Fold this protein.
Amino acid sequence: MRVLLIQPPRPYSSHDSDWLNSTPIGLAYIAAVLREAGHTIDVLDMPSQGLTPESVKGVMKKFKPDVVGCSVATVGYRPALRALTACKQCDPTVTTILGGIHATFEDFDAASQECVDYVVRNEGEHTIVELLDCLEKQHDPRPIRGLTYRHTSLVRTEDAPLVSDLDALPFPAHDLFPLGNYPEYGMVAINTSRGCAHKCIFCSTRRMFRQYRFRSAENVVQELRYVHDLYPEKKILVGDDTFTLNRKRALKICTLIREEGLDIDWNCETRVDTIDTDLLRELKRAGCYAVYYGLETGSQDNLDHVKKGTTVQAGIKAIEKAFSAGIDQILVGFILGFPWETEGDIEKSINLVKHLRKEFGLNLIAYGKFPIPFPGTELEKMIEDGDVGVHQGMYKNWEDYQGYKPIMVTEHIAKDRLHELYLEFCAACLSRPRK
């Protein structure tokens, strides 16, 4: 079958663009398994090309797909629906499929849309291959696990099993993505694991992937070689939630990178309680130039409330260790304005950023957002249970789920004052450090 895979446009901020402007790894995996199954694949990566949803009509007329698939995070949900609507307008017979983290948790809403024929939940590699085989043979889709779709009513089949052996998956189809359309700082994304071992109330990764699984170090480095051969000038984003959770494996990856003679620049996200100076030095020796830590807040009470499982002091120490190990750039993320927060909590975050900028200079980049009750998170459940209030018109207004507008009511801080504090925090992030 002829399959068009679309990454819809997304209204990300400049902060996100700088750190996350990378190839869409989920869609690249789907492209790879479908190509391996014998289908003809074309990819439309709309963010990298600055395309609108209506732009897909030209691709539809040229490629003439039998199936169109979209993978979406929350802020891209409405643009994805607009893109699929355009596909249906161009060819009403085309089969449309929606997947990704937002579609997983909002599957009934997604499957209710006229432009969506099927929703693939959770990890999609096995389900999508089975579905296309079913469509080709015109079989009943009900035995396929991991689907939500309309029949006479909405049908949700049982969950598909996890991909137990990540090494068995083909490498993502990096070659299908137009890297020349990305800005100079655009990166190639890879994942070396799936899932998360922690329980932060603002994240749905644990529920999405259900179990933490790792690729072998050898398999990871083979992909790194493949990516480097394709795009030798591009930096690589390691998109794992916690790259260094398995210390022994992280060290082995670094050793193999050096033994392979891979001259690559890469960065990774990790946690402040899974690193040490020796490990950071090995990351640096293997080409890691930047690490990202989610510090979240300068208030220990708040850190405990969000179930981060770390301490403020551990965050400061982790930054010190990274710079002492020679890591060039440290990115630290904060969340300001949880429903229970006080002005004092936010002032602690502001003061922490000022301290970090003073101590570590311009190579430390900090940014902050308001908390977002993404589908599948404990924050969303608090709202659904009536424990937390929301500002009018904001809840489930998906394109505003970027973190730059408060969605939840902050009990101890008026909305106008919260904006003032947020601007103070941003000023601290941008202040020129002076020792």
